[in-house]
């Protein structure tokens, strides 16, 4: 226990959405955690994400959903699948009204920076340590030592690795294996609303499916911009930084021959970002002793089900619940947290991975069979196990 504060000393490595959410839920539960973030400022690279009802309900309970929705876009339509060549609608679902009725919350699209800012508002400012790049974790019997790049160190009773796909903390609980390249790369762009056709400003998440690749767009930032994301074969491209850039010509080359609405958006987006999508097999366990993982450090997943941020929020809520239940037995609390989460996140990793093959069918019998399935499906109902999940209410082993 800390000399001046009740409860275990909790160190969170990583100040992204997951790490800050963990600190926020722990604070709500009456526990104190310090976030150690390597960057000198809390920022998110410009990109959008879809905020499904399972995430929205947690943000509402945390008291920050109103802050998110000031600039978020509530979706009237979701998972609007279109054919790559001519934009023919393969499947579309109405979200407005249905989401609230089924799952008690709407689905939103939001800029990552807006979500990060909202979650940060629920964390006491003096509990965020910037410029703290963790370089090593040294677990002991009664505490864990954290070492930082500037030579400083600290001790904690509990360490939570929320430090992403290249997690330093992960090496303390699992074999230190580098992630594999998936063979796919992603392009992204944020396009100002005035530069896009009205078609792209509709409150819909539109997915264009084609051979070997797909293209997604939806409005963000209160409708003042459109987020563009596309997945395509990586070839020999292996750079994984979100700050890496491509050229418009490279982006166009991947989507040559696609519907003009797609290629017009590529042109309007200017210089796109481009990064290689990394792949990791699900971990059989992610807690050892007083150290555990959260979010992408524990279960990185392809963004094809739009659940990465939501699963980090769910992790954070369950972690706080388990530690609050057993503050004097952190190793037991962390194992209960893992047991409550691992089957669900593993399933989501697997289906997100499988969506790559579904989305990227070459034209032919397989593609036509997929399109028939899409036309007949109601994904809002079929994915009730995702959207209706109550992370704070499910039984914890």
Description:
- This protein has a 7-stranded mixed sheet, sandwiched between helices. Strands 8-2-1-12-19-18 form a 6-stranded mixed sheet, with helices on one face. It has a 3-stranded antiparallel sheet with strand order 3-7-4.
- The mean pLDDT is 93.
- The two termini are 25 Å apart.
- The chain has 397 residues and is of the alpha/beta class.
- It has 12 helices and 19 strands.
- It has a domain at 10-73 and 110-178 and 280-357: FAD/NAD(P)-binding domain (3-Layer(bba) Sandwich).
- The protein is 32% helix and 25% strand.
Offer a few descriptive terms:
12 helices; 32% helix; 397 residues; alpha/beta; 6-stranded mixed β-sheet; 25% strand; globular; 7-stranded mixed β-sheet; FAD/NAD(P)-binding domain
Instruction: Give the integer mean of the pLDDT values.
Output: 93
Q: Which CATH architecture of the domain at 10-73 and 110-178 and 280-357? A: 3-Layer(bba) Sandwich
For the largest sheet, list the strands in their spatial order: 6-5-14-15-16-13-17
Kindly report the CATH topology of the domain at 10-73 and 110-178 and 280-357. FAD/NAD(P)-binding domain
Unreliable spans: none
Number of E-state strands: 19
Measured by DSSP, the beta-strand proportion falls in 25-35%
Tell me briefly what this model is:
A seven-stranded mixed beta sheet has the order 6-5-14-15-16-13-17, sandwiched between helices. Strands 8-2-1-12-19-18 form a six-stranded mixed beta sheet, covered by helices on one side. Strands 3-7-4 form a three-stranded antiparallel beta sheet. It has a domain at 10-73 and 110-178 and 280-357: FAD/NAD(P)-binding domain (3-Layer(bba) Sandwich), CATH 3.50.50.60.
């Amino acid at each position: 226990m800390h000399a001046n504060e009740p409860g275990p000393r909790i160190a969170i490595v990583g100040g992204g959405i997951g790490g800050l959410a963990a600190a926020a839920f722990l604070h709500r539960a009456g526990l104190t955690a310090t976030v150690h973030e390597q960057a000198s400022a809390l920022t998110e690279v410009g990109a959008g994400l879809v905020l499904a009802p399972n995430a929205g309900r947690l943000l509402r309970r945390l008291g920050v959903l109103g802050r998110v929705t000031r600039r978020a876009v509530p979706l009237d339509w979701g998972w609007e699948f279109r054919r790559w060549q001519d934009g023919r609608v393969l499947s579309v679902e109405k979200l407005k009204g249905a989401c609230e009725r089924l799952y008690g919350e709407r689905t939103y699209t939001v800029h990552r920076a807006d979500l990060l800012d909202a979650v940060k508002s629920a964390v006491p400012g003096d509990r965020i340590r910037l410029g703290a790049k963790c370089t090593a974790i040294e677990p002991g019997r009664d505490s864990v030592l954290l070492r930082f790049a500037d030579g400083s160190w600290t001790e904690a009773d509990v360490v939570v690795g929320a430090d992403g796909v290249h997690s330093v903390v992960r090496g303390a609980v699992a074999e230190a294996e580098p992630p594999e390249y998936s063979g796919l790369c992603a392009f992204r762009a944020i396009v100002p609303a005035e530069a896009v056709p009205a078609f792209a400003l509709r409150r819909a998440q539109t997915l264009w499916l084609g051979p070997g690749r797909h293209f997604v767009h939806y409005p963000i930032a209160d409708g003042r911009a459109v987020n563009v994301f596309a997945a395509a074969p990586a070839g020999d491209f292996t750079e994984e930084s979100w700050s890496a850039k491509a050229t418009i010509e490279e982006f166009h080359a991947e989507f040559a021959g696609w519907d003009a609405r797609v290629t017009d958006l590529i042109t309007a987006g200017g210089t796109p970002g481009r990064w290689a999508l990394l792949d990791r097999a699900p971990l059989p366990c992610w807690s050892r002793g007083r150290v555990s993982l959260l979010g992408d450090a524990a279960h990185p997943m392809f963004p094809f089900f739009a659940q990465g941020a939501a699963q980090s929020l769910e992790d954070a809520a369950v972690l706080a619940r388990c530690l609050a239940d057993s503050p004097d037995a952190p190793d037991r609390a962390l194992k209960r947290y893992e047991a409550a989460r691992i089957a669900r996140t593993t399933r989501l990793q697997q289906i997100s991975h499988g969506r790559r093959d579904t989305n990227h069918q070459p034209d032919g019998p397989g593609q036509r069979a997929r399109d028939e399935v899409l036309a007949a499906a109601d994904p809002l109902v079929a994915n009730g196990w995702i959207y209706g999940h109550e992370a704070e209410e499910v039984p914890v082993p």
